[in-house]
């Protein structure tokens, strides 16, 4: 009998293959299985050749090849396929064995599956994996949650394969997140913030291209400079690279990419769950809507022939305006992350998850799509005040937004006057202005609700929680 394996992996699409190769490269012996056996066989004969892999023809064979407690990671499409694999796995497991879901799973499904798998005597981990194909191979950001007892067995492997950050590159971008669906919820918020970051960058691009007429070569220089400061991040870096890529005819490829964006649903989940929690995650919602509007390409083309507006052209100092766009992007980015962490805080209360928000920021510091130097500041803010209500209240971020305010307002107002849509910039500013005000016009809104529906209201001159109703109709002034 061959030497038992340390880790099992089911699902050998590119992410699964790369993750398996990553685990093996850290000194672990890996058993792999794929529903289509030829995929597994090609992997064993190709990329895995000469390495510590065992190819398995059945799930039973995979489970038999693993050390106890067995650690089996599923890299399959989220949804019914996960339940099907769990059903196939459990007859071949023993108490204490661990099933891991590394897909982009809806957190509530992970909540349910954790309880079901634990009831059967096994352990379950819903683990968010971010970083794409390259991250899976070289070091992803990992967000493990689920059965708390699974973490001691998973920690050495997961922290070995994760991205590393810090002065000595020895801090793993992997730490236990919390019970049941917490890991997949944190991954969802990561993806929602990613939606926002990408939309904000696209709006900055649009402002510089449409109003200033910057060329792709000039945009390359702008993003190169931006990537050396507070905006230093993976998304700024790849945006810079995109502006340098030429098509076979020598023209810039980005200009030939159809302006129709796709989406896989995690941003929508975050937006929907924010509504359920009653927290205003407005930026990710606008980013989702922007993708939806982009998808209506043919309709927009028809509308462009009928609907009129100003022709974008900025008459001021180009260099100064580029700097103002940078400041607006940074301030809006701060708001986006502030909203994301507020949603995490609300979800933690709702689901009784003991989340550590500084640790969450460091999970995203390397390996993942939103990795950025900026996240160090978030970690510092929550380390200084673990009960911080909103990142905008942390001294560093409050100062940064205040310093960017004038530029931010100028960019948003210029966009409106020039007819360039910047929904994410604008909603970020609106959120900031709403959050910084002690008084909002909701007094009138609540009066309207009480007028037509007797929904009652509180009074500013009475104790909070004491409710009142007025017969507004009988007390109104006769309009005649």
UniProtKB/TrEMBL annotation:
Recorded catalytic activity of this chain's protein: 6-phospho-D-gluconate + NADP(+) = D-ribulose 5-phosphate + CO2 + NADPH
Gene symbol of the encoding locus: gndA
The protein's name: 6-phosphogluconate dehydrogenase, decarboxylating
Quaternary structure (record): Homodimer.
Protein function: Catalyzes the oxidative decarboxylation of 6-phosphogluconate to ribulose 5-phosphate and CO(2), with concomitant reduction of NADP to NADPH.
Primary enzyme class: oxidoreductase
Pfam families on file: 6PGD, NAD_binding_2
Domain of life: Bacteria
EC number(s) given by UniProt: 1.1.1.44
Binding residues annotated for substrate, in chain numbering: 104, 130-132, 190-191, 195, 264, 291, 449, 455
InterPro entries the record matches: 6-PGluconate_DH-like_C_sf (IPR008927), 6PGD_dom2 (IPR013328), 6PGDH_C (IPR006114), 6PGDH_Gnd/GntZ (IPR006113), 6PGDH_NADP-bd (IPR006115), NAD(P)-bd_dom_sf (IPR036291), Pgluconate_DH (IPR006183)
A GO BP annotation: D-gluconate metabolic process
Location of the active site: 187 (proton acceptor), 194 (proton donor)
Family: Belongs to the 6-phosphogluconate dehydrogenase family.
Binding site for NADP(+): 11-16, 34-36, 76-78, 104
A GO term for molecular function: NADP binding
Pathway(s) the chain acts in: Carbohydrate degradation; pentose phosphate pathway; D-ribulose 5-phosphate from D-glucose 6-phosphate (oxidative stage): step 3/3
Domain 6-phosphogluconate dehydrogenase C-terminal: 183-473
Record carries keyword Oxidoreductase: yes
Species: Botrimarina hoheduenensis
NCBIfam families: gnd, PRK09287.1
